[in-house]
What we know:
- The protein has 207 residues and is of the alpha/beta class.
- It is built from seven helices and six strands; from the N terminus they run H-E-E-H-H-E-H-H-H-E-E-E-H.
Amino acid sequence: xxxxxxxxxxxxxxxxxxxxxxxxxxxxxxxxxxxxxxxxxxxxxxxxxxxxxxxxxxxxxxxxxxxxxxxxxxxxxxxxxxxxxxxxxxxxxxxxxxxxxxxxxxxxxxxxxxxxxxxxxxxxxxxxxxxxxxxxxxxxxxxxxxxxxxxxxxxxxxxxxxxxxxxxxxxxxxxxxxxxxxxxxxxxxxxxxxxxxxxxxxxxxxx
Length: 207
């Protein structure tokens, strides 16, 4: 009985903090300053894993990240994977095939086919948000809690495709969570990236 109680307490503890994300920096160029970002072109690939994340996460993620950027004077343009010509073909292929397309997401092709529109925009930088790994957690499979390893790659449009800032977040959430709880999950994910980009001391308080 004692072991059972301890196991339940541990499970509750993990559940309470599981939705907190963490950003692990992988690269930051020494000459990069966040103030140089005037407008951001965002390529979002989270919709390629919507069977895990659910539809609501996508809307909340775009709104939250756009708002955080606007707080710092940065406007954003978005292209979701399934709205791109490549993504539309892949989605149609998956729906017409019993095996789908294996979720091999061709990020370079999406960027290449959108290069002209990107150049015609006023964006100074490009951000690619990619769900590297997604799956159900062992503790909350019945509630369909999922984890995602999400990579953020920021680069200058005028220069090469080399990243000026790159890192990975570990994100936990449940598509069926209450809207306020879902917002908290996304806040944690977005704020970890924003804090890494601008510095925690520059992070403005939420309204």
